Each structure stands twice: as structure tokens, then as C-alpha cells.
Amino acid sequence: MDIAISTHYQDYLLWGLLLLGGLPLLSYPFVLLASLMGLAGQSKVKVHWFYWLMNKSFLWGTIAYPVVYLPCYWLARGGNSPAIFLYAAIPLVYLLILYLCFHRMDAPLNRKNTDSTD
User: Fold this and answer.
1) Distance (Å, rounded) from C-alpha 44 to C-alpha 49?
2) What is the mean pLDDT of residues 48-71?
3) DSSP string for 74-89
4) What is the pTM of this model?
5) Is 113 among the domain residues?
6) Of 26, 35, 84, 117, which is least surrounded by CB within 10 A?
7) How many CB atoms lie within 10 A of CB 75?
8) Position 43 pLDDT exceeds 60
9) Most confidently modeled of 1-15, 37-51, 84-98?
10) If pLDDT is split at 50, 70 and 90, which confidence band does 10 have?
11) Stretch 55-81: mean pLDDT
């Protein structure tokens, strides 16, 4: 009976991981449109290569998300090995990387100190 309970919780964990990874696909048509517009835009502002790389990585990464999620979904559903949890978690790690790229893609503003008293 312990094996049946363990398998039951593993199924819940697997489906929970797959559901969390699949939720962003609900907004994918809108994200795809915004990412394509971002890639098509031309910027006249010169930024450091790191910020340019983070910007392009985020835009291309959001476009490629279904290519990451769908194979992981099929691999996680098709096997019985412990690797299925790894396959189910890969999209969440990918989303975490996209989140980090999003927060690092804008160059910091060069603000002068306007609080000085003359």
C-alpha cells in the first residue's frame, strides 16, 4: 500500500510540474507578437553588449518556449523512470532563466545627482 501512495504523490508532483510549465502557453500568442515586434524594432541607443545580449536572449527565449516545453511534456508523460521529473522540471528552469534575462535586459539609467544644493 505504501508503494501505491508513493506513486499517487509522484503522479501529483509530475502533473503539478507539467501544469506550472504549461500555464505560460496560455498567453503565448500575445507574447509571440510582442517578442516579434521587439526583435523587429531598431534602437538608436548604444548599450553595453551584456544588456543587448540579455534583451535578445529574452526575446528569442520567449519565442522558443513551446520548442522547450512540448518535447519535455512528451518525454515526461512517456516514461516511468525517475528522469520524468527532470523532464517535467526543465521548462520551469527555462522560465527562471527567462525571468533573469528579463530583469537584466534594461541598461541602468545614467542619472546625475539633482539633489545638490547650489
Assistant:
1) 14
2) 94
3) HHHHH--STHHHHHHH
4) 0.80
5) no
6) 117
7) 15
8) yes
9) 84-98
10) confident
11) 92
* Residue whose C-alpha is closest to residue 34's, from 10, 51, 59: 59
User: How many structural domains compose the chain?
Assistant: 1
Q: Is residue 92 part of a domain?
A: yes
Q: Is the residue at 110 inside a domain?
A: no
DSSP string of the chain, one letter each residue: -HHHHHHHHHHHHHHHHHHHHHGGGGGHHHHHHHHHHHHH----S---HHHHHHHHHHHHHHHTHHHHHHHHHHHHHH--STHHHHHHHHHHHHHHHHHHHHHTSSPPP---------
Q: Residue 116 CB: number of other CB atoms within 10 A? A: 6
Domain that holds residue 23: 2-103
Place of cell 540579455: 54
Is 118 inside any structural domain?
Answer: no
Match 534583451 to its residue by C-alpha cell. 55
